[in-house]
């Protein structure tokens, strides 16, 4: 075998290895996007929308946290709806912490929701941790909420979900209202 044939064989082998590595990287990237999209689709399902409505009704009533917890203990159906709803944030948090989802998509879609629902349901989760004796219950939900909140406080990050073009449009709308 000539030297040229050896060099060509080595080059072809190197190219094949490079293509395999690139395929693996792309496949992993695609898997992460697909997982993030599946969480989004599940979050927007009819059942999840009903659960979110139940959570919002429960959280928006002007009663104490103790009263809310009593209502849950008295209404197993409500408890199921609420924990089913917040479980998705735990699942998203697991995927986010373990780098199993596309992070930018997850932060963009879930960032504000996770921060908001963590703040509003933290009392429930702390109560549940105590009741079942599991101090790590919903720790990935907590991790994601704390991580997203820190990221939003960094320079260049908005503290609200409305950014970019939406902010510009809102500013234009406000300025047009004051000119009249």
Descriptive report:
The chain is mainly alpha-helical and 180 residues long. It has one domain (3-179). Helices cover 82% and strands 0% of the residues. It has seven helices and no strands. The chain has helices spanning 3-43, 46-60, 65-74, 76-97, 103-132, 139-153, 165-179. Helix 4 (76-97) packs across helix 5 and helix 4 (76-97) crosses helix 6. The model is unreliable at 157-169 (pLDDT under 50).
Provide keyphrases for this structure.
82% helix; 180 residues
Strand content: under 5%
Helix-strand topology string = HHHHHHH
Total beta-strand segments: 0
Oligomeric nature of the chains: single chain
Low-confidence runs of at least 5 consecutive residues: 157-169
Give Rg in angstroms: 24 Å
Structural class label: mainly alpha
User: In the residues, how many domains can be counted?
Assistant: 1
Q: Outline, from the CA principal axes?
A: elongated
Query: Could you report the average pLDDT, rounded to the nearest whole number?
Result: 84
SS element count, helices: 7
Largest sheet features: none
Topology diagram in text:
Blueprint: H1 3-43, H2 46-60, H3 65-74, H4 76-97, H5 103-132, H6 139-153, H7 165-179
Helix pairs in contact: 1-5, 2-4, 3-4, 4-5, 4-6, 5-6
Summarize the structure.
With 180 residues, this protein is an all-alpha fold. The chain is 82% helix and 0% strand.
């Amino acid at each position: 075998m000539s030297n040229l044939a050896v060099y060509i064989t080595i080059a072809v082998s190197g190219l094949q290895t490079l293509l395999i590595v690139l395929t693996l990287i792309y496949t992993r990237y695609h898997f992460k996007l697909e997982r993030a999209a599946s969480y989004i689709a599940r979050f927007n399902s009819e059942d999840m929308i009903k659960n979110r409505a139940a959570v919002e009704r429960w959280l928006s009533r002007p009663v104490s946290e103790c009263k809310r917890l009593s209502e849950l203990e008295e209404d197993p159906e409500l408890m199921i709806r609420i924990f089913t709803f917040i479980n998705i944030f735990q699942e998203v948090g697991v995927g986010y912490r373990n780098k199993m989802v596309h992070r930018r998509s997850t932060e963009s879609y879930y960032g504000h929701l996770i921060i908001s629902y963590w703040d509003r349901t933290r009392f429930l989760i702390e109560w549940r941790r105590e009741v079942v004796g599991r101090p790590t219950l919903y720790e990935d939900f907590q991790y994601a909420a704390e991580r997203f909140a820190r990221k939003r406080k960094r320079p260049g990050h908005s503290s609200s979900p409305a950014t970019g073009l939406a902010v510009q449009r809102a500013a234009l709308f406000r300025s047009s209202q004051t000119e009249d």
